[in-house]
């Protein structure tokens, strides 16, 4: 009888352990599956998220690959079939969104009428020294503290310049029709000029859109709409928008510009923050140009890196 009781106790213990293991596996699978579905929702349905959640998610969207790969590693290490099956969803969503950007590249072909353009938010620092070799340079957050550094770097090789408030444009080509633009910010953070290269006349916008705060994108959204209206109404065949738009490349709000303009970049092209860039609020948007190369320059003392593009004017098109 004693042996029988011991056997019953062992069986009972084994059953309890099995149930605990099953419960542990179930909890693991539920955790992995719910995490994978959450990541999928952030990647796929971000347009419909509340603004307070959508703005940071959209700004740093490519980085959702990191937790996705972590989930895949945990599912693989623990042998969770449910986890492995569900983590395929965010991996596929990420690939659809970003692999085309990573494999697409400027054509790399050079032409005799190409020129380089750049934009940099200076912040508390000066311009990247490499900008001295760029034909057209737009800067934002131009102040009395950094103006001397800017003029020292750019004036020798850029005889034409225009400044309005805290934005500026330096060019190797003549600038005419310089205008201050009112984007509704209360102070000057945008200008428009006509630039005359040897082979084309180009309308150039240099802008610094309204700032974004956590949960507050009203200023950015308002100034972005105003800029978009100006650009859409502009009849120029060749047009550039250079500046800090406070809008990531992955933010759907940028489509109000990129539905008619091309984003001149290669890969993700992150520019902020300068020491370790995580997102790209700084943009070179074009109409009537072919992009041959695009780069992000090394960090400076400021909080944004400069971004550059090599462009060639396209033949004029009928915009009626």
Automatic annotation (TrEMBL):
This is Endonuclease/exonuclease/phosphatase domain-containing protein. Pfam families: Exo_endo_phos. Coiled coil: none annotated. The keyword Transmembrane applies. Residues 298-320 are annotated as: Disordered. The chain crosses the membrane at residues 30-48, 60-77, 84-103. GO terms for molecular function: catalytic activity. Residues 134-304 form the Endonuclease/exonuclease/phosphatase domain. Keywords: Membrane, Transmembrane, Transmembrane helix. Gene3D superfamilies: Endonuclease/exonuclease/phosphatase (3.60.10.10).
């Amino acid at each position: 009888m004693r042996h029988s009781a011991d056997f019953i106790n062992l069986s009972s213990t084994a059953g309890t352990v099995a149930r605990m293991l099953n419960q542990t596996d179930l909890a693991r699978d539920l955790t992995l599956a719910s995490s994978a579905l959450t990541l999928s929702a952030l990647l796929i349905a971000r347009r419909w998220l509340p603004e307070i959640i959508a703005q940071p998610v959209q700004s740093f969207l490519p980085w959702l690959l990191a937790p996705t790969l972590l989930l895949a590693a945990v599912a693989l290490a623990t042998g969770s079939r449910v986890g492995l099956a569900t983590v395929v969803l965010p991996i596929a969503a990420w690939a659809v969104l970003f692999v085309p950007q990573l494999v697409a590249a400027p054509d790399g072909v050079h032409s005799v009428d190409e020129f380089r353009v750049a934009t940099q938010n200076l912040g508390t620092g000066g311009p990247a020294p490499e900008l001295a070799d760029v034909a057209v340079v737009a800067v934002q957050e131009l102040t009395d503290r950094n103006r001397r550094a800017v003029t020292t770097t750019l004036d020798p090789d850029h005889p034409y310049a225009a400044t309005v408030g805290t934005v500026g444009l330096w060019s190797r080509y003549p600038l005419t029709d310089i205008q201050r633009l009112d984007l509704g910010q209360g102070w000057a953070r945008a200008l428009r000029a006509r630039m005359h290269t040897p082979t084309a006349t180009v309308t150039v916008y240099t802008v610094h859109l309204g700032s974004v705060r956590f949960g507050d994108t009203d200023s950015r959204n308002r100034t972005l709409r105003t800029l978009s209206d100006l650009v859409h109404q502009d009849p120029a065949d060749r047009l550039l928008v250079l500046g800090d738009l406070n809008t990531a490349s992955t933010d759907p709000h940028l489509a109000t510009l990129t539905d008619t303009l091309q984003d001149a970049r290669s890969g993700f092209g992150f520019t902020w923050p300068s020491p370790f860039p995580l997102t790209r609020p700084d943009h070179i948007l074009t109409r009537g140009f072919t992009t041959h190369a695009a780069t992000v320059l090394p960090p400076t003392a400021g909080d944004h890196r400069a971004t550059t593009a090599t462009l060639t004017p396209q033949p004029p098109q009928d915009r009626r």
